[in-house]
Amino acid sequence: MNSTPxxxxxxxxxxxxxxxxxxPALNKxxxxxxxxxxxxxxxxxxxxxxxxxxxxxxxxxxxQLRTTLADIGIGLPNRENRPLLFARIRSxxxxxxxYRSLGNAxxxxxxxxxxxxxxxxxxxxxxxxxxxxxxxxxxxxxxxILESAEIAYRESxxxxxxxxxxxxxxxxxxxxxxxxxxxxxxNLYGLRRTIHxxxxxxxxxxxxxxxxxxxxxxxxxxxxPVWEYFDGKDGSNAWREGLCRELxxxxxxxxxxxxxxxxxQLPAIRDSLMVSQHDYDDAMQILHWNNGGxxxxxxxxxxxxxERKVHENWARKIITLAEIYGVKPDSVTGSDMxxxxxxxxxxxxxxxxxxxxxxxxxxGAYV
Length: 367
Hints:
Blueprint: H1 8-15, E1 19-24, H2 30-36, E2 44-48, H3 58-75, E3 84-88, H4 92-102, E4 111-114, H5 122-134, E5 141-146, H6 149-152, H7 154-169, E6 178-180, H8 182-188, H9 203-216, E7 222-223, H10 238-252, E8 258-260, H11 266-273, E9 275-276, H12 277-287, E10 296-298, E11 305-307, H13 312-325, E12 327-328
Parallel strand pairs: 1-2, 1-8, 2-3, 3-4, 4-5, 5-6, 6-7, 9-12
Antiparallel strand pairs: 10-11
């Protein structure tokens, strides 16, 4: 599979999505919170016009989105000072009509999220985003969500994923992330994980994710699925421990970033994207190799082996993450590393929460 090369700037943007906070587009207060930067660790926002909005409320939600984007554009005119902003639409037809109706407000967006992206709509989506960008100086990106039955079911999965990969390669410069719908896949089989389980514990879902990362993870950033538990009224920390456990397995299995449904989840997601000092030192050693003709060497902590050739892609990913999210002290290193993932979040490294993390609307757990 051949892909159009992308620039380092574009690569960094793809890794910068991080924790993507979903917000119903009907929300009337989110613009003020974004402008005042009152949501800690906010890197990206998805204004949802799909599952969170009833059909009869869609025109009102679209009107509110226009107002929200206009307010953000005025309050934060410099794009570098605001989070990445996306609109989650319903269909190719909806993408076309929404883009027309947004007018200049579309310039505040980073792009669009395409739900249930599969062979039934991929060609139409790709044609539309290509047409839209042909008339623009600043591109609008897409983030397709793989969550349909044809991708879940083994008899059609590989053929569908391979075809979708080939189609997306043709417009790769506009594809920021590949996202996965963990709950949609679970729903096909009547499954749901508890607060003490991860999505990776469900064998049939793990198999789907494995094939998605296998086909897309070589050249695209693939983001992890939503964790549906958050800071509740009982004061329990089980939701955070479960989230951190799943984040560790996300990273181990090739996912970068995660969908968030509540602001309280964002600090843990950001912390998971920070790079340990040990990994950073090793990555720098690998990318600036100088070992007298040898292609292997002990790591910076003398606890593992680095190979220049086989660890190069890993090292590039580590350095990109470090540039965006920073480097944190090692919790454990080398031979002291446990067999089980570390699930305790270092609170000194997290963005400080405030009352804005507890805000909700009638839309449920969203901001």
